[in-house]
Amino acid sequence: MKPLKLLPLLALAIVSLAVAACGGDDEKSSASATPAGAASAAASCDKSSLALKTDGQLTVGTDKPAYPPYFEDDDPKNGKGFESAVAYAVAEQLGFSKDEVKWTVVPFNSSYAPGPKQFDFDINQISITPQRAKRVDFSEPYFTAPQAVIAPAGSPALGAKSLADLADKKIGVQVGTTSLEAVEASIKPTQQPLVFNDSNDVVRALDGNRVDAAVVDLPTAFYLTAAELKDSKIVGQFAAPGGDEWGLLLEKDSKLTDCVNQAVKKLADDGELKRLQDQYMGGDAAPELN
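RESULT FIELD:
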């Protein structure tokens, strides 16, 4: 997914490899990809002037299941979890009360497909990439995520002290994610990474020792090692090439993009994004792998 922080995730109770989230199907994250609709700076951001899918209602998309630490109890509506809290904070900046926010299910891979959207913005650990930005708008980043290496008990990857030490290991990743790009660019494995269709398959591969290690975003790694994968360990973390920035996703050339940008920037300037990050994604740091 995807840093920095990390909170005790032992209390969380749902499986999570939203690694996907931190997804990157094409080119790596780049500041040049953000934001795609900033040209409309003159647009009014008064609630009554916003161009919404449904009048008087802010429609927010995310995938299902919705995993911790981004969401809790598979219920985006409860305001718990990092991304649920961020969405409601943005909504408040735009003038919406919690009961004026409606959530809709949007599969991860379809969120950045070209064409009209049925949501005002989507929040789902979606990495900002130049290729995606050709098809959709992104807000300013609300989070920058490092990658993490997880290894099961007994794995030869557990002794790795550097990225080079992982080059000859069998590594698993989820298809369509920035984790795959990070493995290829930073670890440079001598054997092709095993690519799985979804996060549950990655978890099963680790649990069954079919791979020596898996690469996911750091918040997901803390959750998995705390609650899902017995005796597994975070070997270390490393920065995704170019940085892995996540943004709120909007329809291409959305009239709402500039107002969402302003809301995210205000939350960043006020320290609210950091507070939410510390609350939901904080904790002991994993060792750095270089």
